[in-house]
Amino acid sequence: MDSLVAQLLGITTQWASLMMESRHVVGLVAAVLAAVLAAQLGWHGTDRIIAWRERPDED
Q1: SS3 state of residue 56
Q2: pLDDT, tens digit (0-9, with 9 covering 90-100), for 48-59
């Protein structure tokens, strides 16, 4: 019975440690994804503005 309790305690400790480490990785992945999406939006928005400004005026 003591070995079962020790194993459960070990698994719980390892799980808690894994969750603490994964929070950092998830945050890093989210930051990279946000940066990529912002870059894509900026690129697309800039292209739209340039195309809009290059259109001849319709009188």
Answers
A1: coil
A2: 888 888 877 665
Among left, alpha and beta (phi > 0; psi -120 to 50; other), residue 35 is alpha
Phi, psi of 57 (to 5 degrees): -65, 135
Distances (CA, A) of 10 to 3, 7, 22, 31, 39: 10, 5, 18, 32, 44
Q: What pTM value is reported for the model?
A: 0.53
Write out the two tokens for 17: 């440690």
Per DSSP, the three-state class of 38 is: helix
Residue 57, SS3? coil
pLDDT per position as a tens digit, 32-50: 999 999 999 898 888 888 8
